[in-house]
Specification:
Keywords: Signal. This is DUF281 domain-containing protein. By secondary structure, this protein is mainly β. The protein folds into three domains: about 170 residues, no CATH class; about 90 residues, no CATH class; about 90 residues, no CATH class. It is built from three helices and 31 strands. Strands 2, 3, 6, 7, 8, 9 and 13 form a seven-stranded mixed sheet that branches. The longest helix has 7 residues. Bound molecules: 2-acetamido-2-deoxy-beta-D-glucopyranose (NAG) (3 copies). One 2-acetamido-2-deoxy-beta-D-glucopyranose binds next to loops.
Length: about 375
């Protein structure tokens, strides 16, 4: 099976030559602002798309909240023989900070790249995920996106799979992150030791927050307490996915991993106090929903208020399946995504696509924040 390395390269005069680039097209550039998709050599998977056009982002179910951010196309380099590609977001004038974002039709955007695999790289390419102050900072280099590969799908086509789940219409855009200082002030709770991560970066979303022993730094929005998983220590207070988004010409809002936050505080709490469960695999809590009170807390739209709740025969770990009693279906609730009905895939606490320092829960290729699992008797369940 082909392994796809998603490599994100920073612009520099030297880095351009160190990885296989997409060959120049023989046809003259068109005046259309939508470039053609990039075919990946002999890979049978769909070509990668370019998604900077605001029409696409505005209509992308999970990503339309990004429609007012400045966006532009990355350069995608392809190695046909290896069936690998890299995605390079080159800087544009006036935008010192930006993300590389993967969009797809069947899930929320993914702020990329994943774990290090130096041995696969012959040259010293400088690769980026997120650029701050025109520099790629905070991560070891080089990086690649793991757990993404091309494989036969159940319908006979080939599709990209991310964490063993199909990702349809995979494509990329570079998305500016320049509004940090326009977002509402983040309030700081009493016990939090809160420091700017890189004062020189002039990037108001980058902080390190620390709490006294046994307490976890949490982003408190009106409707959620959010933890961020840490690779070095579970109580990491690095909220790498905090992003100030332009809502319209006058309003700006904080987002964390695709979730809009309101009235944000940094606070210190224990996981048990907030979630009724401790940290698993340094990703934070993954509690079991055992009764109607628990379910109501997570079932924000009330979709499951009348269904029976079954026994949970699972406990969270770095990679696990939710086992339910016969006839019951595993459903994962989260703060940043609709309930996910599992159809056999596992749940994993793995590298956060943005940072080596962080881990994150992934379910069916979606990065979920504050997940909780229930076994439910769904009407159509055989
Ligand atoms: C707060 O953080 C700073 C910077 O990391 C550190 O030097 C200081 O000792 C911390 N203070 C407390 C009370 O933890
Ligand atoms: C901008 O968004 C805010 C928050 O959603 C809303 O209250 C306001 O009416 C919007 N303003 C305009 C001009 O659309
Ligand atoms: C739970 O799992 C254990 C071990 O796999 C099994 O022996 C037991 O029968 C299961 N219980 C239920 C209620 O499914």
């Amino acid at each position: 099976m082909s392994i796809i390395f998603l490599l994100v390269l920073i612009f520099s005069s030297t880095s351009h030559s160190c990885w296989v680039r997409q060959p120049k097209s023989a046809t003259p550039p068109t005046t259309s602002s939508t470039p053609p998709p990039i075919p990946i050599g002999d890979c049978k998977c769909p070509p990668l798309k370019m998604y900077s056009m605001n029409d696409y982002i505005s209509n992308n179910e999970g990503g339309k909240y990004l429609k007012n951010q400045q966006s532009w196309n990355p350069t995608i380099g392809v190695d046909k023989d290896l069936c690998t590609f890299n995605v390079q977001c080159d800087p544009i004038p006036g935008v010192p900070n930006y993300y590389t974002v993967a969009f797809r039709s069947n899930g929320s955007p993914i702020y990329v790249s994943l774990k290090i695999r130096k041995r696969s790289l012959k040259n010293k390419c400088v690769q980026i995920n997120r650029v701050i102050n025109n520099k790629n900072t905070f991560v070891e280099q080089p990086r690649y996106i793991g757990s993404l590969d091309c494989r036969p799908h159940t319908d006979g086509t080939h599709q990209w799979y991310f964490h063993d789940y199909p990702v349809f219409d995979l494509g990329f855009a570079c998305v500016a992150d320049v509004h940090s200082f326009k977002c509402p002030i983040i309030k700081i709770g009493d016990k939090v030791n809160f420091t700017e991560r890189d004062p020189w970066a002039r990037q108001g979303s980058l902080y390190i927050s620390e709490c006294p022993d046994n307490l976890y730094p949490m982003l408190h929005s009106t409707d959620a307490y959010i933890t961020t998983g840490g690779a070095r220590k579970p109580e990491s207070g690095i909220f790498e996915e905090l992003f100030c988004v332009k809502v319209n010409d006058t309003a700006f809002a904080w987002y964390f991993a695709n979730k809009q936050l309101n009235s944000v505080w940094f606070e210190c709490h224990s996981l048990e106090e907030v979630f009724g469960a401790g940290s698993k695999c340094v990703c934070g809590a993954f509690p079991q929903i055992n009764n109607r009170n628990d379910l109501e807390k997570y079932d924000r739209k009330g979709e499951y208020k009348d269904v029976q709740i079954g026994a949970n025969n699972w406990s969270a770990s770095c990679k696990f399946n939710m086992e339910c009693e016969k006839g019951y279906t595993a459903v994962v609730f989260s703060a940043n995504y609709d309930p996910i009905i599992l159809t056999g895939n596992y749940i994993t606490c793995t590298y956060n696509p943005l940072s080596n320092w962080l881990r994150a829960w992934f379910v069916n290729s979606v990065r979920v924040v504050n997940p909780a699992g229930a076994c439910l008797l769904l009407p159509q369940t055989p």
